[in-house]
C-alpha cells in the first residue's frame, strides 16, 4: 500500500441552504502522513472529509489527490476509504468475510479473498479471530475489523471520522497507539477527524486546528501547543491563562502589554504594534511562584493534588489563574493574603484579540 498527498486548493463548501460550512481553504497533506483535523462540534471537519471522499463537490476551488483533480470523480472511484464512528459490520458474516467484502467486485477467488483478509487481520493483530462473528468480539476488536475492511481495497488515503468516540476511555487510549502503528506500517495517508485534543496530539504527525469553517493553524502537536498563532488555538488546545489588554511597546519579537493586573512582557509573533488590543496567554505549567519577572499579586483559592502535580488556582482581580507545579512535598502557599506569582517573558505569547474556544461550562449550558 502507498499513501498519496491530498491538496485543498482554495476550496470552499456552501450547502444548498446557503450555509457556508467551509471558508476558502488551502491545505496540503503529505503522502504517508498521519494528519488530524481538530476542532469543536460543527466547525466543518466532516464537511472537509466528505469533499475529500467525493460525497460532496467543492463549491469553489478543488480537491487533488496524488496531484489529480477529483472534480466529477465519485466516492467509489477515488483512492480513498472511509471509517465512521458507528461502524457497520455484517453480524452474520465471519470476521474474515467482513474484511474481504470490498474485494468481491475484484473478481478474486474465495481462496484469494480469504488469504488477503488474513493478511489484513494479521496487520491489525486479529489473525486468530478470523472465523468469529463480529458479535463475539470486543468493541476495540470490532473497530480493528473495520480498519482492516477499509484497508482491504488498498486505499491511498484513509479517512477516519471520530472512529474511537464510541469506545470507553481505556480502549480509546489503547487504540490510539494501535492506529498510529497501523498507519506507519502501511504508509497510507490517514486523515483523522476529532474534537479530542488528546487524540490529535498523541497520534498525529501534523494537526490542523479548525474553527467556524476556517483552519486556524497547521503544525506539529508541539508547535500548536507551544506556539499557538491565534487566541482560538491557544484556548482550545491545552489549558491557558489569559490576560487581556493593549500593546504598549514592541521590539525584536517581544512586546509589553498593559492589563488590569499590570504590565507584562511576552513574545509577539504577529509583530502587533502599540495600541493593538491583544490577549496574553501563558500555560499553567509555565507559571512560577516567587518569580520576579512579569510578577503579579494573586490570592490562592484552592489546590488540587494530581499525583505528581499540584494544581493551584489563584484569583487576580476577578480572573482565575491556574498554576501547575511539580509536587515535591515542599510547596507552601499561604491561603490568606496576596502571593506573588509570575512567568518568564519567553513562556508567554501575545496574540491578537479574537474568538476563544468555548469552555466546558459554556458548552454544558447550551
Ligand atoms: P461534528 O464534530 O459535530 O460532526 P463537524 O465539525 O464535523 O461537527 P460538520 O458536520 O462539517 O461539522 O458541519 C459543519 C456545519 O455545517 C455545521 O454548522 C452543520 O450544521 C452544517 N451542515 C452540515 N451538513 C449540512 C447540510 N447538509 N446542509 C446544511 N448545513 C449543514
Word description of this protein:
This protein has 366 residues and is an alpha+beta fold. It contains nine helices and 20 strands. The protein folds into two domains: 6-226, Rossmann fold; 239-353, RNA polymerase II/Efflux pump adaptor protein, barrel-sandwich hybrid domain (OB fold (Dihydrolipoamide Acetyltransferase, E2P), Beta Barrel), CATH 2.40.50. It is 23% helix and 35% strand. The strands form four sheets. A six-stranded mixed sheet has the order 6-7-8-3-9-10, with helices on both faces. The chain starts with 5 loop residues before the first strand and ends with a helix. The relative contact order is 0.12. Adenosine-5'-triphosphate is lined by residues 15, 17, 19, 21, 39, 41-47, 195. The site of adenosine-5'-triphosphate has 13 residues, from α1.
Give the secondary structure arrangement, pairings included.
Elements: E1 6-14, E2 20-29, E3 34-38, H1 45-53, E4 60-65, E5 68-69, E6 80-83, H2 95-100, H3 110-123, H4 139-152, E7 157-161, H5 169-186, E8 189-194, H6 197-203, E9 206-211, E10 214-219, H7 221-226, H8 231-236, E11 241-251, E12 254-259, E13 262-267, E14 277-282, E15 287-289, E16 296-306, E17 309-316, E18 319-326, E19 339-343, E20 348-352, H9 360-364
Parallel strand pairs: 3-8, 3-9, 6-7, 7-8
Antiparallel strand pairs: 1-2, 1-4, 4-5, 9-10, 11-12, 11-14, 12-13, 14-20, 15-19, 16-17, 16-19, 17-18
Helix pairs in contact: 3-4
The structure holds adenosine-5'-triphosphate.
Amino acid at each position: 500500500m502507498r499513501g498519496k498527498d491530498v491538496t485543498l486548493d482554495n476550496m470552499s463548501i456552501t450547502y444548498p441552504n446557503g450555509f457556508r460550512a467551509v471558508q476558502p481553504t488551502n491545505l496540503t497533506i503529505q503522502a504517508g502522513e498521519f494528519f488530524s483535523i481538530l476542532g469543536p462540534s460543527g466547525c466543518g471537519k466532516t464537511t472537509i472529509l466528505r469533499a475529500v471522499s467525493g460525497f460532496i463537490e467543492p463549491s469553489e476551488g478543488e480537491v487533488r489527490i496524488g496531484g489529480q483533480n477529483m472534480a466529477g470523480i465519485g466516492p467509489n472511484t477515488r483512492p480513498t476509504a472511509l471509517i465512521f464512528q458507528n461502524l457497520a459490520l455484517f453480524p452474520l458474516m465471519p470476521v474474515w468475510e467482513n474484511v474481504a467484502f470490498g474485494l468481491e467486485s475484484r473478481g478474486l477467488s474465495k481462496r484469494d479473498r480469504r488469504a488477503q483478509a488474513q493478511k489484513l487481520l494479521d496487520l491489525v493483530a486479529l489473525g486468530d479471530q478470523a472465523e468469529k462473528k463480529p458479535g463475539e468480539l470486543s468493541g476495540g476488536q470490532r473497530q480493528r475489523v473495520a480498519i482492516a475492511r477499509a484497508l482491504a481495497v488498498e486505499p491511498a488515503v484513509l479517512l477516519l471520522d471520530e472512529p474511537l468516540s464510541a469506545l470507553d476511555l481505556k480502549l480509546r487510549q489503547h487504540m490510539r497507539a494501535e492506529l498510529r502503528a497501523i498507519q506507519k506500517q502501511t504508509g497510507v495517508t490517514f486523515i483523522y477527524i476529532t474534537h479530542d485534543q488528546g487524540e490529535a496530539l498523541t497520534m498525529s504527525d501534523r494537526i490542523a486546528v479548525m474553527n467556524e469553517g476556517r483552519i486556524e493553524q497547521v503544525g506539529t502537536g508541539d508547535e500548536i501547543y507551544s506556539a499557538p498563532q491565534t487566541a482560538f488555538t491557544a484556548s482550545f488546545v491545552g489549558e491557558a491563562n489569559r490576560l487581556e489588554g493593549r500593546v504598549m511597546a514592541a521590539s525584536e519579537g517581544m512586546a509589553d502589554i498593559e492589563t488590569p493586573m499590570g504590565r507584562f512582557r511576552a513574545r509577539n509573533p504577529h509583530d502587533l504594534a502599540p495600541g493593538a488590543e491583544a490577549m496574553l496567554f501563558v500555560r499553567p505549567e509555565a507559571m512560577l511562584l516567587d518569580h520576579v519577572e512579569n510578577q503579579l499579586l494573586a490570592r490562592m483559592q484552592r489546590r488540587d493534588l494530581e499525583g505528581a502535580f499540584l494544581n493551584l488556582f489563584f484569583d487576580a482581580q476577578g480572573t482565575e489563574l491556574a498554576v501547575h507545579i511539580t509536587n515535591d512535598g515542599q510547596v507552601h502557599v499561604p491561603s490568606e493574603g496576596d502571593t506573588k506569582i509570575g512567568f518568564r517573558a519567553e513562556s508567554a505569547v501575545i496574540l491578537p484579540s479574537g474568538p476563544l474556544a468555548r469552555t466546558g461550562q459554556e458548552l454544558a449550558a447550551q
